[in-house]
């Protein structure tokens, strides 16, 4: 004996499904490139409703209110919606009319974002990896303008004092004049400079007196 499956237990990819349902609505007929007629019908049992795709003459025979037994059906996702199909060797048999307990809610053929995400997992991976790429690229260019703004002329600052940046430091030079005044005292220990002749003569007399 075949076990019956309820609408609430149908998942994408399941095969050899056996159901008993009542037809609630019959959709419009659409023709394929091969000339086949396809009709989508809304069916339900006591656990919920789902869409079933019916081909050719079988679709023309189905009417709302028919109670049908599906054998060897399978479930798949079509445009993000869970849909029933009759598989190879499957069959639809009318076993009654109207007298069946059913529930339209929940509708398991409503668009489900989880099904659409499973169909395109690679797109989600690319979107997650794309924002990670720009941060490393933006890092180095941000540092370059900062260094140029600090240096003014990028290459002039590291070798020595540049004309532009040291202009505000001019008030700090007066202590350097004091150092120049103390230079004669430091030069006394060294050889006499050619410029200060008077100082050199004084140094020679001091050295001769010490001797």
TrEMBL record:
Residues 115-128, 178-188 have a biased composition (Polar residues). One of its GO terms (biological process) is double-strand break repair via homologous recombination. PANTHER family: OB FOLD NUCLEIC ACID BINDING PROTEIN-RELATED, SOSS COMPLEX SUBUNIT B1. It comes from Trichechus manatus latirostris. It comes from the Eukaryota. The lineage of its organism: Eukaryota, Metazoa, Chordata, Craniata, Vertebrata. Residues 132-143 have a biased composition (Pro residues). Gene3D superfamilies: Nucleic acid-binding proteins (2.40.50.140). Residues 11-92 form the Single-stranded DNA binding protein Ssb-like OB fold domain. Keywords: DNA damage, DNA repair, DNA-binding, Nucleus. Its main location: nucleus. Residues 110-211 are annotated as: Disordered. The keyword Cell cycle does not apply. Component of the SOSS complex, a multiprotein complex that functions downstream of the MRN complex to promote DNA repair and G2/M checkpoint. In the SOSS complex, acts as a sensor of single-stranded DNA that binds to single-stranded DNA, in particular to polypyrimidines. The SOSS complex associates with DNA lesions and influences diverse endpoints in the cellular DNA damage response including cell-cycle checkpoint activation, recombinational repair and maintenance of genomic stability. InterPro entries: NA-bd_OB-fold, OB_Ssb-like, SOSS-B. GO terms for cellular component: chromosome; SOSS complex. This is SOSS complex subunit B1. It is found in: Nucleus. SUPFAM superfamilies: Nucleic acid-binding proteins. Belongs to the SOSS-B family. SOSS-B1 subfamily. GO terms for molecular function: DNA binding.
């Amino acid at each position: 004996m075949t076990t019956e499956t309820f609408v609430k237990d149908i998942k994408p990819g399941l095969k050899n499904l056996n159901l008993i349902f009542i037809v609630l609505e019959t959709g419009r007929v659409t023709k394929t490139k091969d000339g086949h007629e396809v009709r989508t019908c809304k069916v339900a049992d006591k656990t919920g409703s789902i869409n079933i795709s019916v081909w050719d003459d079988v679709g023309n025979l189905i009417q709302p209110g028919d109670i049908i037994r599906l054998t060897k059906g399978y479930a798949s996702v079509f445009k993000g919606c869970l849909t029933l199909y009759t598989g190879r060797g499957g069959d639809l048999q009318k076993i009654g009319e109207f007298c069946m307990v059913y529930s339209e809610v929940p509708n398991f053929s409503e668009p489900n974002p989880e099904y659409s995400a499973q169909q395109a997992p690679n797109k989600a991976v690319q979107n997650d990896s794309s924002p990670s790429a720009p941060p490393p690229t933006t890092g180095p260019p941000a540092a370059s303008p900062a260094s140029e703004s600090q240096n003014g002329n990028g290459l002039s600052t590291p070798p020595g004092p540049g004309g532009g940046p040291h202009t505000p430091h001019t008030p700090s030079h007066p202590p350097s004049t004091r150092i120049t005044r103390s230079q004669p005292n430091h030069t006394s220990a060294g050889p006499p400079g050619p410029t200060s002749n008077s100082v050199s003569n004084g140094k020679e007399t001091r050295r001769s007196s010490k001797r």
